[in-house]
Amino acid sequence: MIDHISFGVTDFARSTAFYDQALGPLGVKRLFDVPEAHSDGVKVTGYGDDRPWFWIAEEKATTGMLHIALQAKTRADVDAFYGAAIRAGGVCNGTPGVRPHYHPDYYGAFVRDPDGHNIEAVCHTAPG
After folding, report:
1. Using an 8 Å Cβ cutoff, are 30 and 47 in contact?
2. How many CB atoms neighbour CB 57 within 10 A?
3. What does the alpha-carbon distance between residue 18 and residue 103 come to, in Å, rounded to a whole number?
4. What is the C-alpha to C-alpha distance for residues 7 and 66, in angstroms, rounded to an integer?
5. By the 8 A CB rule, do 68 and 19 touch?
6. What pLDDT sits at residue 60?
7. Distance from C-alpha of 17 to C-alpha of 14, rounded to nearest angstrom
8. How far apart are CA 56 and CA 87, in angstroms?
9. What digits encode the pLDDT tens for the residues 59-116?
10. Which of 36, 50, 112, 113 has the most CB atoms less than 10 A away?
11. Apex CA 7: angle with CA 64 and CA 65, to 5°?
């Protein structure tokens, strides 16, 4: 089980504006900003629901393909994530829909964040 993830972003203000909006429909919000005195002057913030588990830091951007899938409770939450992420400046990397090649009830949407990271919201339950 993953406890938390953290990665670098090139423009902290742009990325926090994106994630503040895109993660809201999933019930994930910015919970904690690390005081710069404790992060060697680097801006670091943590997002989560009851505790921070999704961290970004303004430093050299993480390179290579970074794919993060966030679990959504409903398909409507996936749709809302996708809409919010696109409105926040994300780039479509896969519109909301069923991905039966993963399993029959896999419903996901994929968006590239401001640094090109592939951020997904996925619901694993059947409609109804």
Report:
1. yes
2. 20
3. 30
4. 9
5. no
6. 83
7. 5
8. 20
9. 887 888 799 999 999 999 999 999 999 999 999 999 999 999 999 999 999 999 999 9
10. 113
11. 20
